[in-house]
């Protein structure tokens, strides 16, 4: 376990932050008034956003379970980690194999302040936390904690869950993902999710995209179509059932009825690097 510090002085509680807002939608307590206000304002425009957040988290659990149990992945690079909650990547993976090793990456100081909760590994596994941004792939790949924790000559599960939609197209998200995948060996996997307007009425979808581009107090939200999301998996072998809304990706172990595509308007997929 590594000690972390210096995050508290970077936390601005007067400005909403995506990780804390997501925590609010999931019913967590690690958020502030600005995050709750922003979350409520977005929910007023998109009433199903809380459902989408919950289903996205369930997708992460199912994707990690598939990678650890069915694909035999024992190493994970989870970028855009968010505030620790139930079923964190290392908990799900180490429940399958206690030797699983996970590196978490996030650039939010409040996530940094909770890093110890992400570093509670099993004794024969390992976890590490890197304070970095998805837009800095080389900083992540060259970080000594990554090198100490993962063996990049062996397959890795790259987790980009609910983080890609915070990267504008002008910031070259496809090139960033390609850089990360290029550093991983054959047999590695990408698991990713991204919000979409594909299931919204055209007028509402146009308003949502304009809302996302405008950013403002709620931040940028890059809604992507199925084809746009699919580009992240170019050159990969998609795992069945391919690109689906997160509620429809291998939901067999989820009890109860599934929300509609419109209510879980987040695409999710898992692909294997040949």
Can you describe this structure?
The relative contact order is 0.15. Strands 1, 2, 3, 4, 5, 6, 7 and 8 form an eight-stranded mixed sheet that branches. This protein has eleven helices and eight strands. By secondary structure, the chain is α/β, with parallel strands linked by helices. Strand 4 (157-160), helix 9 (173-182) and strand 5 (189-195) form a beta-alpha-beta unit. It has one domain (11-272): Vaccinia Virus protein VP39 (Rossmann fold, 3-Layer(aba) Sandwich). Helix 1 (18-25) packs across helix 2 and helix 3 runs parallel beside helix 4. Residues 1-9 have low confidence and may be disordered.
- Helix amount: 25-40%
The CATH architecture can be named as: 3-Layer(aba) Sandwich
The N- and C-terminal alpha carbons lie at a distance of 33 Å
Radius of gyration: 17 Å
What is the chain-wise order of helices and strands?
HHHEHEHHEHHEHEHHEEE
Biggest sheet overview: 8 strands, mixed
Strand content: 5-15%
Q: Tell me, rounded to a whole number, the average pLDDT.
A: 87
* Total count of strands: 8
Low-pLDDT runs of 5+ residues are 1-9
Number of domains: 1
CATH superfamily: Vaccinia Virus protein VP39
Shape designation: globular
């Amino acid at each position: 376990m590594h000690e972390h510090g210096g995050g508290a002085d970077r936390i601005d509680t007067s400005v909403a932050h995506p990780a804390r807002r997501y925590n609010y939608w999931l019913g967590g307590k690690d958020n502030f008034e600005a995050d709750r206000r922003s979350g409520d304002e977005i929910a007023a425009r998109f009433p199903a956003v809380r459902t989408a957040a919950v289903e996205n988290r369930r997708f992460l659990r199912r994707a990690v379970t598939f990678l650890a149990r069915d694909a035999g992945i024992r190493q994970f690079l989870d970028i855009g980690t968010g505030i620790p909650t139930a079923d964190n990547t290392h908990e799900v993976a180490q429940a399958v194999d206690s030797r699983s090793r996970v590196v978490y990456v996030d650039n939010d100081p409040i996530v940094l302040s909770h890093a110890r909760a992400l570093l509670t590994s099993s004794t024969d596994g390992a976890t590490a936390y890197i304070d970095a941004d998805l837009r800095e792939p080389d900083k992540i790949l060259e970080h000594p904690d990554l090198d100490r924790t993962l063996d990049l000559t062996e397959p890795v599960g790259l987790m980009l869950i609910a983080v890609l939609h915070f990267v504008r197209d002008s910031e070259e998200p496809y090139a960033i993902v390609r850089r990360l995948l290029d550093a991983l060996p054959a047999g590695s996997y990408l698991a990713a999710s991204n919000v979409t307007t594909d299931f919204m009425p055209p007028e509402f979808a146009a308003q949502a995209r304009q809302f996302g581009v405008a950013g403002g107090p709620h931040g940028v939200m890059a809604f992507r179509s199925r084809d746009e999301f699919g580009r992240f998996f170019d050159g990969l072998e998609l795992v069945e059932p391919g690109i689906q809304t997160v509620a429809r990706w291998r939901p067999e172990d989820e009890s109860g009825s599934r929300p509609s595509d419109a209510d879980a308007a987040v695409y999710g997929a898992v692909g294997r690097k040949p």
